[in-house]
Write a structure and sequence with these properties.
Blueprint: H1 3-14, H2 18-37, E1 42-44, E2 48-55, E3 58-61, E4 68-71, E5 74-81, H3 83-91
Antiparallel strand pairs: 1-2, 2-5, 3-4
Helix pairs in contact: 1-2
């Protein structure tokens, strides 16, 4: 499912115009992105938690030479599916290939 399909489905289920559904979805993405960029986690009950994670500097090894090297500190984004979402996805029947 791509963005267009998602907006169309949301519009149909909510009984609103596609433009309204697209506007709401755009606003949702902007708010979540801005909040996580500030370092504030966003948790949507029953769906997912979005958070910025700080990774400390550490020592690693070059796998080819075995030589130690310093890995710089960095930031990452973590999206964690919550229990209700995982349960719904994992309990559904597998699609036949």
């Amino acid at each position: 499912m791509n963005r267009r399909d998602l907006v169309t489905t949301i519009a149909e289920q909510a009984g609103v115009d596609r433009k309204v559904a697209d506007s709401v979805m755009t606003s949702f993405v902007e708010v979540v992105t801005q909040s996580v960029a500030k370092g504030e986690p966003v948790a949507i009950s029953g769906f997912a938690k979005f958070a910025r994670v700080e990774r400390a500097a550490r020592m690693g090894r070059n796998p080819q030479t075995g030589e130690p090297l310093k890995i710089a500190a960095s930031r990452r984004v973590r999206i964690t599916p919550l229990k209700a979402f995982k349960d719904a996805v994992l309990s559904s029947k597998r699609a036949k290939r």
